[in-house]
Amino acid sequence: MDTTKKVFVLTGAGISAESGIRTFRDSNGLWEEHHVEDVASPEGWQRDRELVWRFYSERRKQVLQCQPNPAHTALAVLEEALGDKLFLCTQNIDPMHESAGSKRVVHMHGELLKSRCEGCDRPPFYDEALYYSEKEIPQCECGNLIRPHIVWFGEMPFAMRAIKEAVRSCHLFITVGSSGAVYPAAGLVREISYRKDMGEDTRSIYVGLERPDNADLFDEVVLGKAGEVLPELLAKIP
User: Fold this and answer.
1) Known catalytic residues?
2) How do beta strands 34-35 and 30-31 pair?
3) Helix (H) or strand (E) holding 206
4) CB proximity list for 123: less than 8 A, separation 6 or greater
5) Exposed, middle or buried, 142 (CB in 10 Å: 0-12/13-18/19+)?
6) Low-confidence residues in the chain, pLDDT < 70
């Protein structure tokens, strides 16, 4: 691959599913048998902090037993080749990219193995602890409770300015395993489509098991398991 060109990669639930991590939610709007609004919203947190922490504690237990797959590894190898010319952005909250060796990962929806204060601006911290009862939930130095470092519905995703700037300047845009239904991530490829219409030299590729909702915006859609398709695809890109 031409190491002078910038590459933007967006990964979604599909890449993590191949590592055994359960996907976000099913067709009934449930997230691992819970209503999404109960475990992934500020209102749910205010109603029942114990339920929220039990839910994320179970997810932590699960993810600590999972391993990155060849798609994660291929992106770590790509980072070694491109350095800061690669912008790796993920919708996933698991640490599979880091476990595979990626060092410059932008988690737009937060990180499962981090926690932060619900009230003050102290930075988030690495946290593998499991909190199953309200009395186990730790307090920050400021007196507020510690919450999962997750972007919930109604909250702004992290690093959106940097993400949008990277999309505006990349030569190649690749999405891996994202449904194309969750915004603002699903709308990022529109910038690539617009830039191409304006005559810019840019290209977009989707990789995943099924066509995403926004498939028509991509120049190329490659269907298959990311762990099988992505390493070969990256090796062939000039």
Assistant:
1) 109
2) antiparallel
3) strand 203-208
4) 116
5) exposed
6) 23-32
